[in-house]
Amino acid sequence: MGLSRGAHKFERVTVTLVPTSDDRSFRHVPSTFSATNRTYGWRRAEQMDYMIVPVRISSNEIKIDLFVSSPKKGKLQSRNVQRVVQEFVKEKIESEWRGLKLASISRPTTATPPQKSFVRGTIEEMLGSNLGN
Question: What is the mean pLDDT of the chain?
Fold first, then answer.
């Protein structure tokens, strides 16, 4: 149940985060965008490789697409993807994503991660909104 590019399998899971009363929750929207490379990059966690692409930011919720690939030879079983993603998101909320709480995690779907570079560099510019207001 994944898209193959070489030996890799990709799954996309949409994660919905809800800001708490802390205004800082919008200052660090989860993303793996690299201003240096001007593209989204892959990162490694204990049980998966991942890419985070913000999809929607509003005062009520932040939606991110989390692209997942197994770093091991096999692939993550579809039923395990949600569990692994949930553990990953909870760990990130406790450490890096303070001011956000988990609202929902969608079912995994086969997907292709973004491949192009972006002309503009900030999340605000990409989404066309000012996150400070």
Answer: 78
